[in-house]
Write a structure and sequence with these properties.
3-stranded antiparallel β-sheet; about 30% helix; about 15% strand; disordered C terminus; binds iron/sulfur cluster
Length: about 375
């Protein structure tokens, strides 16, 4: 047995096991584990420092999961956008392909709580059906392998999938979403890296939520993937009591860059049943972006997005105060120090000028937003260098 499989097999999966390690009352979580499976790898277990800390909250089942009765199992409506089993075609030129429902750990806030860890996922012939769909749909240039966690598949199966995808001429990119490097770093083997190298361009978006997850071993696993030519991004979910704090988030993005992982998305938590106790306000996310933007390296700042309920897709959210006003003369901007600046528009071509359009038609770019006057006077003269 490969070492990573042996380590995975040592994970905590029952309330009794967990009680032996963390001293909890197993009866408190029996019902939760009955509905939503638990798995905690030895690597993750070792990073829990105390009851209720950021790592504990992410992986230890909580009775609050069972109290969330009104929420939906699939608020993003992935199942409705699935033309063939396990494939979600929401955006025009890219698809999501769920190749397994097994994960190294079962995150308590998972959007796919309805699927992960349950028996009987990929049935015979379903992968071929998905590949056939991709062959027919020439508009698809980007496939995201997800799950579950694709890197839990054995090497030969992963290679079979890569090989099949690379027979599709119009498919340009393969992306993988994975929590494996952060929770089962032993899985990132030289052999896996050799396989991946043969099917580039392969990108990976790794899931990290807290700086304590970036141990030396985890950073080494990320380094192996980076050395294999895989561009690495991080996806982070904004979680109450885990990372809803600008200082924690700043430490996280710095640790990610040290691990050669570019912070990519910060997600507002979804409305998934069993996870609503993790939700924060939208303002919390905007405050985090404000605390990062301009205060640290630009490449450390992720896109803050809400995956719109009802299948609307990812919508970027920026604090509204950066662009204070925009019209045909220019933009009034506020920087991270609260100073305001004016950026002039290029001169409009005569055919597009307000005069050329006739009276009353010349203000199509004006936005009914922000009280620029108010903001400007609030700053006094300070910083308003160019107006
Ligand atoms: S690893 Fe990803 S898919 Fe698996 S439980 Fe965690 S969030 Fe969900």
């Amino acid at each position: 047995m490969e070492e990573w499989r042996r380590i995975l097999a040592e994970s905590v999966v029952t309330p009794k096991d967990l009680a032996a390690h963390l001293g909890i009352n197993p009866r408190e979580i029996e019902a939760v584990v009955g509905d939503y499976p638990m798995r905690i790898t030895p690597t993750v277990l070792a990073t829990i420092k105390e009851r209720g800390d950021a790592i504990w909250k992410q992986v230890v089942p909580d009775p609050a999961e069972m109290e969330d009765v009104d929420a939906e199992d699939d608020p993003l409506e992935e199942d409705l956008m699935s033309p063939v089993p396990h494939l979600v075609h929401r955006y025009p030129d890219r698809v999501l392909l769920m190749v397994t429902n097994q994960c190294p750990i079962y995150c308590r806030f998972c959007t796919r709580k309805r699927l992960v860890g349950k028996p009987g996922f990929l049935k015979k012939g379903e992968l071929e059906q998905a590949i056939a769909y991709l062959k027919e749909h020439t508009e698809v240039r980007d496939v995201i392998l997800s799950g579950g966690d694709p890197l839990l598949l054995p090497d030969h199966l992963l290679e079979r999938i890569f090989k099949a995808l690379r027979t599709i001429p119009h498919l340009e990119l393969i992306r993988i979403g994975s929590r494996v490097p952060g929770s089962l770093p032993q899985r990132i083997t030289p052999k896996l890296c050799e396989i991946v190298k043969q099917y580039h361009p392969i990108y990976m978006n790794l899931h990290f939520n807290h700086p304590d997850e970036l141990t030396l071993e985890v950073k080494a696993a990320c380094g192996m993937l980076a050395d294999a030519g895989v561009p690495l991004g991080a996806q982070t979910v904004l979680l109450k009591g885990v990372n809803d704090d600008p200082e924690v988030m700043k430490r996280l993005v710095h640790q990610l860059l040290l691990a050669r992982v570019k912070p990519y998305y910060l997600y507002q938590a979804d409305l998934t049943k069993g996870t609503n106790h993790f939700r924060t306000t939208v303002e919390t996310g905007m405050d985090i972006i404000r605390a990062l933007q301009g205060h640290t390296s630009g490449m450390a700042v992720p896109h803050f997005v809400i995956d719109a309920p009802g299948g609307g897709g990812k919508i970027p959210i920026l604090p509204p105060d950066y662009l204070m006003h925009l019209d045909e003369d220019g933009a009034v901007l506020k920087n991270y120090e609260n100073k305001t600046f004016h950026y002039p528009q290029p001169s409009l071509a005569p055919s597009l000028s307000p005069v050329g359009r006739g009276e009353g038609e010349g203000h199509s770019r004006e936005l009914p937003m922000v009280a620029a006057q108010h903001s400007l006077s609030a700053c006094g003269n300070g910083g308003l260098d160019d107006l």
